[in-house]
Write a structure and sequence with these properties.
The chain has about 110 residues and is mainly α. It has 4 helices and no strands. α2 packs parallel to α4. The protein starts with 9 loop residues before the first helix and ends with a helix. It holds the Pfam family YpoC. This is YpoC-like domain-containing protein. It comes from Sporosarcina jeotgali.
Length: about 110
């Protein structure tokens, strides 16, 4: 019985984090200027995050310690989607990216 999980490489996941790092300053500026376009930019950042989660899912486990998702990730992502006009959505999305990056780093290191 083979319990090995699919491999997850740095080369596969880094483009998602690079895209986020490229989007984040512009989104922050739009929120600072109270521009409605912030929601559109956030939609792109959210879609990028969801694609990353989808890519990571097969590599993780099913319990909260091994699942490739931040703690309470689904609820937090729903908050972001519901409150996308609020700058707090950007803060929360940034935290999700940061926490997911740490989980992936631990997974790749093992």
């Amino acid at each position: 019985m083979d319990n090995s999980k699919p491999a997850l490489s740095k080369e596969e996941i880094m483009p998602y984090f690079d895209k986020w790092e490229a989007l984040k300053p512009g989104i922050q500026e739009l929120y600072d200027q109270k521009q409605s376009e912030a929601s559109e930019s956030m939609a792109a950042a959210i879609a990028n995050y969801e694609e990353l989660l989808e890519m990571c899912a097969p590599a993780g486990g099913s319990d909260r310690r091994t699942k490739m998702e931040p703690l309470n990730g689904e609820e937090r992502l729903q908050f972001i989607k519901n409150k996308v006009v609020s700058p707090f959505a950007l803060i929360q999305l940034n935290l999700l990216y940061t926490e997911l990056r740490k989980k992936i780093a631990r997974f790749i290191a093992n």
